[in-house]
Write a structure and sequence with these properties.
Chain A: It is a multi-pass membrane protein. The complex is a heterodimer of chains A (253) and B (260). Chain A has 253 residues and is mostly helical. Chain A is built from eleven helices and no strands. The two termini of chain A are 19 Å apart. Chain B has a domain of 134 residues: Rossmann fold, CATH 3.40.50. In chain B, the strands form two sheets. A six-stranded mixed sheet of chain B has the order 6-7-8-3-9-10, sandwiched between helices. In chain B, strands 2-1-4-5 form a four-stranded antiparallel sheet, covered by helices on one side. The longest helix of chain B has 32 residues. The N and C termini of chain B lie far apart (48 Å). The chains are: A mainly alpha (253), B alpha/beta (260). Chains A and B meet through helix 7 and helix 8 of A and strand 6 of B.
Chain lengths: 253, 260
């Protein structure tokens, strides 16, 4: 049986179980709404464009934040890979910061930047930067010595060696870095938006919760999950596989 | 230009143990146009010697001269083919071959040089392919084309066919022989295969291990292409010289293993 069919059957089964629980009537609709009312709520949201507006806003925060995270992360990563002292000092700090959950930065961001979009973007940047840094650092540090030797015997050195050999050789790590940075940023984004004054998916989620609109809460959680997995699977995994294959690091998975 | 290796020694730090002497007082002159094989058991320092000729490592004492010039760093007069493919995976075959000449000539000249050498290694049909799409043998052909494109005086080959299967290996040996006859470059060829050394070289230098020294240096006076029957006799002779060396290495390794 093809995977797609299996998956579709699984989700149909899930919907049936869900509807079955609703029909049993153990819990009130305000706690467990039916799938139909969730779909209806999503339909209304897309029809009056509020959800479209939220999704656009969330993506705007994400892209600005992720772009900055990739930029800063690449710079820091190269610095750590090339300057030993920086690696021994700043590197340790970044490693520690990497293990701090992004939501921890939200209160700090609110004090510095208020409840608006700047705060959200700040948290997104923090969320993505460190993982990008560590991946670029690994990539630049672990360039296969054979490439360096070969390039040197062919007259490449200094900046030329760095830009023509080290950087391209580090691309697979960079791609993994971007994928992880996206995943971290996406989670950070939702955390930050939940506590913001909007707009954004996270904001509307907490808004819906405040007004006891359980259908919308579940609907938005679904949107977040679907967007997350689509971007991860369709965009990043494909790019990553393609790059890994070409760089000879992994057979087609 | 002749290559002159003068009283060259190399030792590696091996803390906390005393430094490891890898090459001990190597003296060697290789004439321009000669095909010379460095043959020896693993650990005899033949690859280290080659890498110092390439300028990738520095001697601990002594020096290497190409013509009048002392070798201190890598240079375009010496091209290296490594055992594992050192092709850049992010470039296609043609771009790889053009890498060493990309700053030396116009784009048009680069393309024609790349075409010429890809043809020489019989890969003119694959310029747009990426290394991962090629077999090991084809990758080594590209490596050879890339080195030739640089037009070096000296071709340094570090067990270039060591990772290939027997058949591919034999085909590539024929081709490198042909290329050498066509281009008349000086070749230093590192190998641990006696047959390969005899099949290809004008001259074979046998090295012994721990520390690496030259234990035998002789010319191969057989017509080309070499016939199996002619080669067999010489092979036995070389084997006899090498056997005591290999025994020595084995013994040491066993006693090392025993003491740990």
């Amino acid at each position: 049986m093809p995977v797609v069919i299996k998956r579709i059957m699984f989700f149909v089964f899930l919907l049936l179980v869900w509807q079955g629980i609703v029909l049993l009537g153990i819990w009130p609709e305000s706690m467990i709404p039916s799938p139909f009312s969730v779909v209806n709520e999503l339909y209304l949201g897309f029809k009056d464009m509020t959800l479209v507006y939220d999704i656009t806003a969330s993506f705007r925060h994400l892209f600005i934040g992720l772009f900055l995270a990739i930029l800063i992360g690449t710079g820091l990563g190269v610095l750590l890979a090339k300057v030993k002292t920086a690696d021994e000092t700043l590197g340790t700090m970044i490693l520690a910061l990497q293990s701090v959950p992004s939501i921890v930065w939200v209160p700090l961001a609110i004090i510095w930047f208020g409840f608006g979009e700047t705060s959200i973007i700040f948290v997104v940047v923090i969320g993505g930067t460190f993982v990008m840094t560590m991946n670029i650092r690994t990539g630049v540090k672990n360039v296969s010595p054979i490439y360096l030797k070969a390039a040197k015997t062919m007259g490449s050195k200094g900046l030329d060696l760095f830009f023509k050999v080290v950087i391209p050789a580090a691309v697979p790590h960079a791609v993994t870095g971007v994928r992880l940075a996206w995943a971290f940023s996406w989670r950070a984004l939702m955390a930050a938006e939940l506590l913001s004054t909007g707009p954004g998916l996270g904001y509307t989620l907490s808004y819906a919760s405040d007004f006891n609109n359980m259908s919308l809460v579940i609907g938005i959680i679904m949107i977040i999950g679907v967007i997350g997995s689509i971007v991860d699977q369709l965009v990043f995994h494909r790019i990553e596989n393609k790059v890994l294959r070409r760089w000879g690091l992994e057979e087609a998975a | 230009m002749d290559l002159k290796i003068d009283a060259l020694s190399k030792q590696f730090e091996n803390k906390p143990n005393p430094p490891l002497l890898v090459l001990d007082n190597i003296n060697l002159t290789i004439k321009a146009g000669e095909f010379v094989s460095l043959l020896g058991p693993s650990g005899c320092g033949k690859s280290t010697l080659l890498s110092m000729v390439a300028g990738l490592q520095k001697p601990s004492s002594g020096s290497v001269y190409l013509g009048e010039e002392e070798i201190r760093k890598p240079g375009p007069d010496r091209g290296v083919v490594f055992q594992e493919s050192a092709l850049f995976p992010w470039m296609n075959v043609r771009e790889n071959v053009m890498f060493p000449i990309r700053k030396k000539m116009t784009k048009k000249e680069q393309l024609s040089v790349a075409d010429k050498y890809l043809q020489m290694v019989q890969l003119s049909k694959f310029p747009e392919h990426y290394p991962h799409e090629l077999s090991g043998g084809m990758q080594q052909r590209v490596s050879i084309a890339r080195v030739l494109a640089m037009n070096p005086e000296l071709l340094l080959m570090d067990e270039p066919f060591g990772a290939l299967d027997e058949q591919t290996r034999s085909i590539l040996q024929d081709e490198i022989e042909k290329i050498w006859l066509d281009t008349k470059k000086t070749v230093i060829f590192v190998t641990h295969s006696i047959r390969e050394a005899i099949k290809l070289s004008d001259r074979i230098i046998i090295m012994g291990a721990r520390p690496g020294t030259i234990i035998s240096d002789f010319n191969v006076n057989l017509g080309r292409p070499r016939l199996q029957a002619d080669m067999a006799k010489l092979e036995e002779k070389v084997m006899a010289v090498l056997k005591s060396e290999i025994d020595k290495v084995m013994q040491e390794e066993l006693s090392y293993a025993g003491s740990h």
